[in-house]
Amino acid sequence: MRRTSAALLLGLAVAGGAVGWLLQVALASAGRPVFVPPVGTWAVLYVIAVAVVLVALPVRRSVHAGRAGRPHRHRVDPFYAMRALMLAKASSILGAFALGMGLALVGYAVSRTGDIETPAFWPSALLGLGGLVMMVAGLVAESWCRIPPEDRTDLQRTGAPTR
Hints:
Layout: H1 6-29, H2 39-67, H3 78-113, H4 121-144, H5 152-158
Helix pairs in contact: 1-3, 2-3, 2-4, 3-4
């Protein structure tokens, strides 16, 4: 599996920003109140970010124990490692989208009032920050779940075929 690319994350942040901005414009033009993210929305992003790091931590410990020459206390199930990797990738993708949406909501709130004293500013800013935290946690966890490259000299000594 390939690493999550910066272009994908940037594209999703732009898409999230477009969705957030268009949502606010559509609500305001219809005469309805604009969207203000509830407390639960951005709080869940922080909880998920912590959970992603905690899920990937056993994989990191196992990979680094083998790299440092220490014996493995226990091997990580490859299916567990794959699930941790997929969770990390999904959280970085969702985090990028939430970051873009939060920034768009902040931009819309400030553009309408010209000040940060609007009630929509802080919940929107916390949504964007939660997206950033979730994206970074996903990228860190994804890097922890990568298997280090094999040492070619060990393979040649054991007579195993090299590619």
